[in-house]
Amino acid sequence: MRTDRWVVAFAFTIVCLFLQACSTLPPSTAKVETHHLPPAADTPSARYAHTEVDKHPHQSGFRLLTLSTNALLSRVALADHAAHSIDLQYYIFANDMTGHLMMQHLLAAADRGVRVRMLIDDDNFDDKDHLFEALNSHPNIEIRLFNPFRTRNPTLVSRAVQFMLEWRRLNRRMHNKAFIVDNNVAIIGGRNIGDPYFDAGSDTHFRDLDVVAIGPVVQQASDAFDAYWNCDAAYPLEQLKKTDDSGKRLAAARVILQKEVRKFAQSDYAQAVMDELPDGPTADKRGAWFWGDAEFVADQPEKIEADGDVPALRIGPRLKTMLDGAQHEILATTPYFIPGDAGTQHLVERAQSGVSIKILTNSLASTDETAAHAGYVHYRKALVEGGVQLYELKPTSGQSQPTTDIGKSSGISLHAKTIVVDDREVFIGSLNMDQRSKLLNTEMGVIVDSPGLARAISDFFHTATQPSNAYQVTVDPATHQLAWHAEENGKPVTYQTEPNASAKRRTEVTLLRQLPIDGLL
Questions:
Q1: Active site amino acids
Q2: Count of Cβ atoms closer than 10 Å to residue 275 Cβ
Q3: Which tens digit of pLDDT belongs to each residue from 391-446?
Q4: 97 and 224: one domain?
Q5: Residue 493 near residue 471, CB atoms below 8 Å
Q6: In this structure, what CATH number is given to the domain that contains residue 330?
Q7: C-alpha span between 134 and 226 (Å, rounded)
Q8: Can you give the residue range of the structural domain that contains 88?
Q9: N or C: which end of the chain has fewer CB within 10 A?
Q10: In terms of C-beta density within 10 A (0-12 exposed, 13-18 middle, 19 or more buried), how is residue 333 classed?
Q11: Are both 105 and 142 inside the same structural domain?
């Protein structure tokens, strides 16, 4: 009898979860369409930006954010200097220490009268303590969730049920990352908002790159933001979860955020931020800009609704044109590298035509996604045998690199997404070189014709691929098997199997390699 009762209880639970998962989303068309504000011209920051841009007609200016601490403080400084508007769009806006820091500064901007629009993908959205819900109740802050789940804060089981029922829709995410202030300056690149992206986490520390941008490319970024903000997949948070005590929650959120930010200010990390800040210009400090003709590129939000591959909706063809134009060298950095059969053949053909192709990705020991690594290993040997030079980042550091922040912390993982062609043309953005970025998620970035910016990103690449920081993958001519070359304690070493990877990770990859999942990675 006890077993029967458990069976009935389990079945009842599944039915409840099923009904919960099938609840209907409100129509997103009920939201009010809004658009970016004109570029500000009445603040010191705006006047400075316009003065710099006027010296370089039709070009945009860029600063590369390599240090994680500079990347964080640049966002804080821009929020603090905002006078009219802040538009931000992220795959992840974490509810953690650096997320709380950004919330507090966004709230302070809203209190000054700044309009804040926050578009966040719902895949990793976590509203513990109802902080986002409280912020959304501020008259100057609006939060929208992209492609949301049907229930708020679903349990693991409920989430799994929803995925099973709506796999095609929920498997497609907004991976874009942009932070735009007063329609005059933007931060674009690979970083989300969260501790691992700013070296503040206790586990994974992502090595990443962003650019601060001024000039015409910022207007293009604002136009792209509006397209996502007003699309059918963007749902106002209040339509998904309404409460009657939002005023009380906003007051409570102020107390929580003040406490968290005070704790942050007293942390060792905050002291390190202040110590490192003078080492390079942030978004609010005067300094040199890299100038060049620039194009903001973004997938169309309708990409998540498309049946099959619709090239007109994605940025891939534009990037392929950039790569196909290479005459001498391609340097590419990507945390997940799954080129597929056609991509592998194309890269090999380019390499055999005389173009030097060097690619930096994660090693099995450094990756945060073993499934992606399992997809990568299908193509690795063919790429190396075809003349493509592969480098895999080590998971731990040698010496600290003050200008690149490569290898500073234990548990590091590559997260930057960049391409440099012929020491001149650059792409930096959110797109990984894998099938998920190509066909499932939406992506964005900037393409810039600037030898100076290209040199800065190339310096990052060359430091990251030094034998003390990365393994170079080759094929042993005697055994025809892969080999990994690096330096340990200043001495050259060669590994015959994937170095420093745990038995658990090796087993995971072995099992995952047997599954036909490349198109999902």
A1: 175, 177, 182, 415, 417, 422
A2: 10
A3: 999 987 533 333 333 333 347 899 999 999 999 999 999 999 999 999 999 999 99
A4: yes
A5: no
A6: 3.30.870.10
A7: 23
A8: 27-279
A9: N
A10: buried
A11: yes
